[in-house]
Amino acid sequence: MKIICIGRNYAEHAKELKNEVPSEPVIFLKPDTALLPKRNPFFIPDFTDDLHHELELVVRINRVGKNIEERFASRYYSQITLGIDFTARDVQKQCKEKGLPWEKAKAFDGSAPLGDWVDLGQRDIQNLKIELKKNGEVVQSGNTSDMLFSVDRLIAEVSKYFTLKIGDVLFTGTPAGVGPVKQNDLLEAFLEGDKCLNLRIK
Ligand code: MG
User: From ligand 1's centre to the CA of 65, what distance in Å?
Assistant: First the structure.
């Protein structure tokens, strides 16, 4: 399986990192080794002093598809969760300054913890409240209605380049409020008020 991620999909987040608001989706990948086995703690890697949380809606692909039209894209998923796109912000900054790919900063082992999958059901995927608490305090709060590119548009765009396969996951970008995590922090993610991810930082 593969992990497909979208950068800068919320205008307020693009601004907080002083990035341009993109005119087309920013796409990158993480390997399957970026998944964090359930109930494992997350260990901060040695190579960063500025590890950031990025809370994101994640969609699980349930059909094989290539060049999917946006109007048919909703047929390719039925389950969603929240995930953290962990980012070594210091490493990413160095990569960006040199114009280099940023995988070292974003695709390392365990950098893509996922919550429990839930059925989307009749809910509107473009009107979901997502929230991240760090040590009990809300640090990120957003709504998928603020995405620059909708989930269906993202699937259309991504599938131009990559064949989507069953079990692939799509991280859809983070709202504003990204920030550092340190040892012993507790991260809790809430989808429409329901907790779906609980992660201890080691
Ligand atoms: Mg992200």
Answer: 24
